[in-house]
Design goal:
67% of the residues lie in helices and 0% in strands. With 285 residues, it is mostly helical.
Length: 285
């Protein structure tokens, strides 16, 4: 095995160990919150020895999403001129995805190097013991992980929610596919190419976002720019005519979003498993 290959075998081992294994930790365990994570997982890809392509990927995604926001605002001004762009859940999802990639680009650029420093071999248990005495994970990494988890889950919720509740009304045109399906494709790719850890306990962050958005829709319904039913954003959130349906819909959204958060965790664990398989293959070659 070459020196560079050996170096990246060590790095991949560090990433998979730092991401944590659910069978070794309590249910409430969160890698970044509990300071048991290698900070490099937030600004590097464990698949690459040269991080320049990863930085370019994040820059291109951030620029593309900024353009998408501009385009979507123009579309909303045409198809729904009586509604505020930021009032729609899809718009919140696009903003989250954009901020996620801008933040990721900033971290990647700040920590960028074409060569990753070689690290010693550390297995999961030793990594755990070392991190117990190592400095806490900086707050901005914890904030970025929270943002990433919320972004990932929201993308899946928007895709599945639109498919179940709105696609029969609005269809699946090019615009609808870009706004309600491409976000999930982007998220799956980002989870796989990054080393972002995720656990079930992190769902509390997205549950908080749902609560904030529901409160926003109620305020918008009460004091929005339109009269009467003009402030109803979605047919299933008609607080005036069908409050019971709105309550049921909100409860179902909480349940659905938890299931989709489990999907986020599952994809991240599958990525870690793939990294372990690649690492063992490189060690044996």
């Amino acid at each position: 095995m070459s020196a560079n290959s050996h170096m990246w075998t060590m790095q991949r081992r560090n990433v998979t160990a730092a991401s944590g294994h659910s069978k070794r930790h309590p249910v409430g365990f969160s890698p970044a919150r509990d300071n048991l994570v290698d900070p490099s997982v937030f600004y590097t890809s464990p698949w690459l020895s040269n991080q320049t392509p990863y930085l370019i990927y994040r820059v291109l995604m951030a620029c593309s999403l900024l353009y998408l926001i501009r385009w979507d605002i123009q579309v909303i001004n045409v198809v729904a001129p009586d509604k505020l762009w930021i009032s729609f859940a899809t718009s919140w999802g696009i903003v989250l995805l954009t901020v996620h990639f801008i933040s990721g680009t900033t971290l990647c650029a700040y920590h960028h190097s074409t060569k990753k420093p070689r690290k010693p071999r550390i297995d999961g248990k030793l990594q755990h013991r070392l991190n117990q005495t190592s400095p806490p994970v900086p707050w901005h990494f914890k904030a970025y992980q929270t943002l990433a988890i919320i972004t990932y889950t929201s993308a899946f919720v928007i895709t599945v929610g639109y498919t179940i509740l709105l696609s029969s009304i609005h269809g699946w045109g090019t615009k609808d596919f870009i706004l309600h399906a491409m976000n999930s494709v982007i998220v799956v790719i980002d989870i796989i190419v990054s080393g972002m850890p995720a656990c079930l306990a992190d769902y509390i962050y997205f549950a908080g976002l749902i609560t904030v958005y529901v409160a926003f829709t109620i305020v918008y319904w009460l004091v929005g720019p339109n009269a009467g039913d003009g402030n109803i954003l979605y047919w299933f959130l008609d607080y005036g005519k069908s409050p019971g349906l709105a309550v049921v819909a909100i409860i179902m959204i909480y349940l659905l979003s938890f299931g989709l958060h489990c999907l986020v965790v599952g994809i991240s664990k599958a990525r870690d498993t793939m990294l372990q398989v690649v690492t063992r293959a490189e060690e044996e070659s």
